[in-house]
From TrEMBL:
One Pfam assignment: MarR
Native source organism of the sequence: Novimethylophilus kurashikiensis
SMART domains associated with the record: HTH_MARR (SM00347)
Protein name: MarR family transcriptional regulator
Keywords, sorted A to Z: DNA-binding, Transcription, Transcription regulation
Amino acid sequence: MSESDTSALSLQVLGLFRIIFKSSNKHFEAIEKAVGFSGAQLWTLSEIAQADGIKVSHLARVMSLHQSTVSNLIVKLEERQLVDRVRDEKDRRSVRLKATSTGLAVLGRAPAPLRGLLPDALMRMQPEQLAALKTALDTVLDLMEIKTERYAREPLGEPITLDKS
């Protein structure tokens, strides 16, 4: 492949990244307009509703987020009375999460997919496609001079905190 062909192809791929992220951002804006809070909060609420009685640690694994990040999302949902923390009857130290009736009503009017466009698309891909995509993205990250690994466990559509380093 010639240098000009490679350059043209790299710009096409860059355009695809732009489409992915701009489309995701538009979806987050639609969510915010429809329900009044972030896409990450909506995904959290939908996971809680699907797995009634889920623990915070399990929810963090399901969403591939830091447990502290998930805890912060839950606090925001609790403040809106969309979820409740319920102590386990047998083990009072154990807390389970439940969507409230208000939370379920919000899910009913929220734009799909509830987990966001990109996570939903990735979950619907074939395993071999995901593996090839992961390999290609690992290469992109290896070629980038600046990358912040902790961003892998932060939700899309939420403000990021910039490193001071």
